[in-house]
Amino acid sequence: MQFFPNRTTFLQIGNLTVQWYAVFIVSGAFLAYLFSKRNLKEYKNIDVNDFFDDVFITILWSAVVGARLWFCIFNNFAYYSKHPLDVIRIWDGGLAFHGGFILACISLIVLCKKRNVSFIKLADSVAPTVLLGQAIGRWGNFVNKECHGAMVDASYFDGILKPLKEGMCINGSYYVPLFFYESMACLTGFIIINFFLRKTSKRRGELTGAYLMWYGVARFFIEAGRTDSLYIGPLKTAQLTSVAFVLAGLALYLGAYEKVFKRKKPTVVFDLDGTLQDSTPGIIAGFKAVHEKYGNVEDFTPQRQIEVLGPPLQDMMMKYFPNEDPEELCKYYRIKCDEAFETTLKPMPNAVETVRTLKELGYQTAILTTRMTDSTMKCLKICGFEEDDFDIILGVDRINKTKPDPDGLFQIVKKYGLNGDDILMVGDSTADVLAGQRFGAYTVAYLVLEEKKQKILDLKPNRVITDIAEVLDIVKEDHYFTYNLK
How far is CA 434 from CA 58, 441, 443, in A? Predict the structure, then answer.
């Protein structure tokens, strides 16, 4: 094994060689991967750890294949059409970025459609970081003594360019280091778009558009000076493609994506207790019965009566009765609670009318509750709801983890085949708001009890309402129904 056996080779193990060009390309791709993964976590409703590794692999193979095909087509199609096996000889050189970019985009569109992930959200997370990969990858051209401009005098490298002088001496002559200018342009674009523009971006497609415009303009002028370009007739392929990049980027930046792809109607996910039905008397009766049988009813103070409204049932049982079997306590509670519901349960004001109006207007509706499904169905009937008022009903027995864990919302997305966008989580407790935020949904806090108000407001939900009918106005608003509106 030998490191740096010559200028272009990084490592040689017997007959196996690893070129510096490959090291720079892979290093740039890996750093872009890390930044993209961090960016994608902002959206929350995408399982980044499971999904993004597939994205990275898809980008790598499709970019290499696309870059090679693009080179072979526009470099010497006549030759490669007669010698198709030579197309795979990438070790002989010949990759063109634009071809790799186009095939990578096509492959990612297919992957996103298969995995129910928004392609434009993925693109906004990935595209700006591609500039970092390009900035690093261009130094592979420096090692290979390519991507240069016209011949210049040695004095051209006096000053800041002096470290490049020896590397840009090719066959005794000096050449303009265009690779360096493009690398610096890409690095500057990465910093501006990824760290500054991202903070002010309001619409989907803006960051992708900014990338296309920045790189398109930079590459157009860099390509004008290159001496090793690919051509379509008398025109440089990269310049034509760069013009297309700029036009497409400008359209995206000005909002073309939102105009072409109209937003879907949001799916409205309701909590049950305290949101659609006034279950407070029954819940208190159930907990009071548990205290009477397993503890001291005097411990069930007014403060504790407020505290039990909202959190997962089993959590409360373990908190108040740590020495008892929580399953047994929950079972007894449900029996007593259901008995009380027969005479005390009623719908929240305007709840039935609101849900049915949403259905009439074509919105999908769901219930995500910590109540058992069979109990939920009984409660809905008592309150005057019909089963078909909701597209899906998820009780605690149908999910793996209860609120504030977002598992139930992920299950709803999977059920509908959605991409995680445009979800309203409507609830009256901190658990509802937290579940929505951890999923990345647009959270609507329904404030009913004054005692719970401040804790909910401290979580900063997207909206706060005091009448469930206000949801009818919210769903008609012109924005994405995600936690950050993007």
Answer: 33, 10, 9
